[in-house]
Amino acid sequence: MPRGIYECVNCGHREVIDSSEPLLEKACPKCGGDMVLVGFSVEVGETTASRPALPAEVEAKVREFYSAEPLEFREGVFTFEVREIIKDDFERFLSEIEGYGYWAALKKSGGRAVLYIFPAGEIKGDNPRIGVLLFIATLLSTLWAGYVLALNYIGTLDEFGLPGYRNPYVIGLAFSMSVLGILGTHELGHKIAASLHNVRATFPYFIPFPNLLGTLGAVIRVKSPVPTRKAAIDLGVSGPLAGIMVAIPVTAVGLRLSTFVPVSAFQSLPGEGIYFGTNLLFEILQRALLNPPSGDYVLLLHPVAIAGWVGILVTFLNLIPAAQLDGGHVARAFMSEGLHRQFTWGMGLFLVIMSYFWAGWFLWALLILFIGSAGNPGALDEVSPIPASRKLLALLAAILFVLTATPVPFYAG
């Protein structure tokens, strides 16, 4: 092990210690302050030429973007202390050294900026057949769900002699296309943001499921590290923003196709007594577009309106600021990894409490705690400041989270 030269951050005392850790807390023998690694002691017979070195091209890029001093080499990772950032463009730096087979991370350690250079990971290719098969399966499952919803909707219209379009196949297709359009646009937003920041990501994988809605949503897999906190916010917010831009007009059209029926019709709604909860955004759209009749009436949602409602719910669930959900990535940009882990645990416990009102929150709590146990490594660059524009974008995401919050998504009547 190389012997490190350490300097006390309080009194300036220096000494050589058998360690290569960047920071030794409370190790100063004079004042008890923290000791920071400032160099290495070269033993007799050892030369710097005997140590591994970065390729000259990568070394030149480091010098181009940073004024940095080498600290150590351990397990394939080159560590530098950054004295000054010459060019504040980490994404460009990362892209350029990746061409030579290396990645980088810029982190804070012991009150200073530390640059890590390490071999780039292998990025495996996609298997498009899996995505196509999942899309076809989800198309079929949502068509079936839409058909069932259409039959219940048409049955209620017939029972009360109400006007309305009655072709269950067309209505089922409209439901399926609406759901897939919202979910696909959501994931496409992520894909576009990833491409803009040179982050490798798959195309959407749709998840078929034989439930009331025919799907559990869609996901994309990020296959390379997120470079900056700016990129993390863009990737986290882009999906919900893109999806809600489709969900709002779909909901508006669906609400205009919906109709009011007497309360007694509740028993004929889809799901045999399972009803849809509401949120601020849905209530705003409903009040803006509909004029409810006087008396004891309730709104019978057209299947297209249900598809829009699903899009709003998906937006809310993805914006939960925990683990590696979209909202979790945004929150992680403003938090340390340790604080974010604690925040995730707190959110999981909060959802356990919320399961008193809807049992499904318990499953969501388990999911968040499970994926949160792996942590969220955050962006490679956690030193460069977050631009004001991305802080505003994060604020917009927080507002959207409040507007779409659905405390009780489903309830029994």
From TrEMBL:
<dbReference type="GO" id="GO:0016020">
    <property type="term" value="C:membrane"/>
</dbReference>
<keyword id="KW-0472">Membrane</keyword>
<dbReference type="GO" id="GO:0006508">
    <property type="term" value="P:proteolysis"/>
</dbReference>
<dbReference type="InterPro" id="IPR008915">
    <property type="entry name" value="Peptidase_M50"/>
</dbReference>
<feature type="transmembrane region" description="Helical">
    <location>
        <begin position="167"/>
        <end position="185"/>
    </location>
</feature>
<keyword id="KW-0378">Hydrolase</keyword>
<dbReference type="GO" id="GO:0008233">
    <property type="term" value="F:peptidase activity"/>
</dbReference>
<feature type="transmembrane region" description="Helical">
    <location>
        <begin position="231"/>
        <end position="253"/>
    </location>
</feature>
<feature type="transmembrane region" description="Helical">
    <location>
        <begin position="392"/>
        <end position="412"/>
    </location>
</feature>
<keyword id="KW-0809">Transit peptide</keyword>
<feature type="transmembrane region" description="Helical">
    <location>
        <begin position="132"/>
        <end position="155"/>
    </location>
</feature>
<dbReference type="Pfam" id="PF02163">
    <property type="entry name" value="Peptidase_M50"/>
</dbReference>
<dbReference type="InterPro" id="IPR044838">
    <property type="entry name" value="EGY1-like"/>
</dbReference>
<keyword id="KW-0645">Protease</keyword>
<protein>
    <submittedName>
        <fullName>Site-2 protease family protein</fullName>
    </submittedName>
</protein>
<feature type="transmembrane region" description="Helical">
    <location>
        <begin position="343"/>
        <end position="371"/>
    </location>
</feature>
<feature type="domain" description="Peptidase M50">
    <location>
        <begin position="175"/>
        <end position="339"/>
    </location>
</feature>
<feature type="transmembrane region" description="Helical">
    <location>
        <begin position="297"/>
        <end position="323"/>
    </location>
</feature>
<keyword id="KW-1133">Transmembrane helix</keyword>
<keyword id="KW-0812">Transmembrane</keyword>
